[in-house]
Specification:
Arc Repressor Mutant, subunit A; DNA-binding; mainly alpha; homodimer; two-stranded antiparallel sheet; 2 strands; globular; 6 helices
DNA sequence: TTTTATGGTTAAGTTTTCTTAACTATAAAG
DNA sequence: CTTTATAGTTAAGAAAACTTAACCATAAAA
């Protein structure tokens, strides 16, 4: 039989996915952004400054596709593409103010329901949950670092 | 300032999204399913038997689009479409065995890393986290039910 | 300094997904 | 019994995202 914690983690993920996806899709539709566009904004923000191929790899597409997607982001004023003075073959992709703002907004749309959720807990529940999540986050970050090396 | 619990919840969601999306996209690509297709499988599974318009509404597209998407699922043997004997305008959409299996597999691809994560916790951490997540799940379900009414 | 490798762009074309509009069939209301 | 509303399908076409292949510029290697 599967360990109870793993099962509970799975269930929590299912719940969060349902909530978050619904709100995220609605945000995308209402503001006329495509999923790949928003995805790209997240990736750039998380990676920090990066190259076109980096972005493509992160998103699982060819660098041609990444370059084309980037064109649109630049057109819309959400990102900039500049030459790397160190190695002029490289391009340095960064988010603009506007790009950062959109990324924040979509994050908020996706996660806003968590604020409502937090309010529903008693103070005691709040501190227990808070502690538990910190544990999970710490372990997850360790896991992420390990798997990135391989 | 924002309450610490909400902030921690946000961070945990960011982490889980990064992990889950990466694995999910890879699964989709390797097995040649599109994101909307897998999304539809989830929706049908979660909703149980449902109509074409229900599906469209859940996915935020017109019922024409839902009908076309469903065509492909039926072609691939992942879902069935049958008449509702009660009201013959309605169609009853159900997952086939194969459809259920694909949905399970993609879920596992998306959530498998949670098993690794669970193993990393000490027994004490495991039971604390387990309890905390149960609290969150219960509150989230209550929240979901309330918002579905409105 | 010629050759090769790397990073990125452009062009052409394919596939997927979606929309609107017209249509069919059934059910409910007048 | 006629009208209207509901559920779904089909057709035609638009838009998005992706791929491969050819290409340019720069850097590193021989």
């Amino acid at each position: 039989m599967s360990p109870p914690l793993a099962e509970t983690l799975h269930e929590w993920l299912r719940v969060t996915m349902r909530f978050s996806m619904r709100h995220f899709m609605r945000f995308a539709k209402e503001n006329n952004y495509s999923i790949p566009q928003l995805n790209a904004l997240f990736r750039i923000r998380h990676k920090g400054v990066c190259g076109v191929s980096d972005l493509g790899e992160e998103m699982g597409v060819t660098n041609a596709a990444a370059s084309q997607l980037l064109d649109k982001l630049v057109q819309q004023g959400l990102a900039t593409r500049s030459e790397d003075p160190q190695d002029r073959r490289n391009k340095l992709i960064t988010l603009t103010e506007a790009g950062l703002r959109v990324s924040e907004q979509s994050m908020q749309a996706r996660q806003g329901w968590l604020d409502q959720l937090a309010e529903r807990l008693t103070p005691e529940e709040q501190s227990d949950v808070q502690a538990a999540l910190q544990v999970l986050i710490a372990h997850a970050q360790a896991l992420e670092e390990e798997t990135e090396l391989s």
